[in-house]
Amino acid sequence: MYTSNSAGSGCDPDEIKTIANLVPGAAAAYDYLEAESMKNEVGSMKKEIESLRTQLAETQIQPA
């Protein structure tokens, strides 16, 4: 929710338009950061899976 600006008045139409123009870029930045976080998590999980597969192979236990 928008509040008054530093002068105490509400946002004028130009301010609202400027803010609205910034929203897609901000959303894209957050999406990118979330995707990078998920990519890192997947990478960690892949490493863990490979480590567990190696351990299974070393003990000659076959996965189901």
Can you summarize this structure?
This protein is an all-alpha fold and 64 residues long.
Strand content: under 5%
Number of strands: 0
Q: How would you spell out the order of helices and strands?
A: H
Assign the structural class, choosing from mainly alpha, mainly beta, alpha/beta, alpha+beta, or little secondary structure: mainly alpha
Helix content: over 70%
Distance between the termini: 53 Å
Give unreliable regions as ranges: none
Overall pLDDT, averaged? 87
Main beta-sheet annotation: none
What does the overall shape look like? rod-shaped
How many individual helices? 1
Radius of gyration: 25 Å
Explain the overall architecture:
The protein has 64 residues and is an all-alpha fold. The protein has a domain at 20-57. 72% of the residues lie in helices and 0% in strands. The chain is built from 1 helix and no strands. The model has no long low-confidence stretch (mean pLDDT 87).
Question: Key terms for this structure?
Answer:
1 helix; mainly alpha; rod-shaped; 64 residues
